[in-house]
Amino acid sequence: MTKRTLTILTALLMLALLLVGCSTAAPEEPAPAEPEAAEETTDETTVAFTGQVERETTFTESELKAMETIDVEDTNNNGETVTRTGVPINSLLDMVGVNEDATTLVIVSDEGEEVEVDFAEVRACTQCILAFRTRGGFRSTLPGFPGSVQVRGVIEIRVQ
User: Fold this and answer.
1) DSSP per residue, the chain
2) What's the pLDDT tens digit per position in 65-111?
3) 46-159 has which fold?
4) Which of 52, 80, 94, 124 could join 159 in a cystine, given CB atoms 3.0 to 4.6 angstroms apart?
């Protein structure tokens, strides 16, 4: 290489170093966040027993299906007799313990509907069940009661 080429290359190298030193540094990318511990979640349907009970309790569908169930004949919206399977509401009320001064059950649906039923009438009903729906979830099945208390998508039974 000639002296002139070497001088030009040296000057270009120094200029490049000077430009690199004057440039602003690119922002560093933040380190990836530590993955948070995954919360245990379930898509399983539940129903809560709340209010004037000794133990507010939430039951999962699989827990209820593992309990003793009964079959009850009921009338659907078309006037046809259907058989529904579920857990007696009285068995569930016994499990959670009910305060002596309870007078009303409020059945709450997943759509926010709330229906009140006389507590003593439900306690006298051996065929009243929290029935399993074919697509999952629960419905109140209270044979002999008005159709308005047959609630689909039950998520809570509140004792008042």
Assistant:
1) --HHHHHHHHHHHHHHHHHHHHSPPPPPPPPPPPPPPPPP-----EEEEEESBSS-EEEEHHHHHTS--EEEEEE-TTS-EEEEEEEEHHHHHHHH-B-TT--EEEEEETTS-EEEEEHHHHHT-TT-EEEEPTTSSEEEE-TTS-GGG--BSEEEEEE-
2) 999 999 999 988 888 999 999 999 999 999 999 999 999 999 999 99
3) Sulfite Oxidase; Chain A, domain 2 (3.90.420)
4) 52
